[in-house]
Amino acid sequence: MSLVRAERRRFIKRRLTIWMVVIGVLILGAVITGFALTHEKPTAATLAAAEAAAERDYKEQTLMFERYKAECEANAGTDAAMKCQGPEREWFKAEHYMPPQFNFKEMFGETLIVWAAITAMVGFVLGATFVGAEWSSGSMMNLLTWRPRRMNVLGTKLGVALGWMTVVGVVTFGLWGGAQYILGKTSGTTAGMTPGTWQSFGLTGLRGVAMILAFTALGFGLASLGRHTALALGVAIAVVIVGQIGLAIVLQMANVKFAEAYLIPVHMYTWLNKEVTLQDFSGQVTCDQNGCDAPELILRYTSTGYVALGVIAVVLALAFVSMRKRDVA
Length: 329
Prior knowledge:
- Keywords: Membrane, Transmembrane, Transmembrane helix.
- With 329 residues, the chain is mainly α.
- The protein has eleven helices and six strands.
- It starts with a helix and ends with a helix.
């Protein structure tokens, strides 16, 4: 049996692989279920109920204004005509009283970060355990006895992990998009979908799959360096708790400009959406109905991708150098 075929079977038949994929799909399904329960397609009945609610609120606000109109005019003096104006009917629109509907075009791009983040987490754990378990159980030494070419063995394992996670990423992306499209049909709208929009969604999905593979490779490289799954998971916990939560608190206390730019989730979102505009509120900022005059910083996915690629390349290079030079016993 070839090494590639053996590793493919080993990866897909591991109980952790099956359970992690199942858990990831269940989490995504729970999110879709939440969307389905909180969104509703407009009907004549809901429109009538919303119009009745708007009319009811308008009358209640008008009655309340009439009660305090005399007092308001007495206190306002010459400015009474400006300050003591009652509510107007156009303020109370029926659409403000209707349950939210699921707009597929608007929601799909915004919620892709949920799919990508959850699947990337699955990829990180599977990539780390796929090689880490081999070292901790002693299977790696036995495998190298049968196939002593170390670089070939480690490279094959990495390739198999990335290949299977590509399949997982593509399939879950299809399920995620299909479920949301059905949700748009049943609990909202799918209007505005053009060939260009579909192409944009497809390219965003490709970037999402690339992010999943990046986390898979990162987990694989860290576990291979430490020759144990615990190193990769320990680094992940340290980065999340110390490097992100702690860093966010410190940056906020220090009033650092564009503090969000130092947080990984922001860069994940940037990678999927091509660019993100951050505003700095650490200084003196004034806001009005047209927005705020806070300084802005635009993050683009190209710079984020280069940094991520560099980190992963370094980790994998160290993993392969360690595999080549260190004793495997």
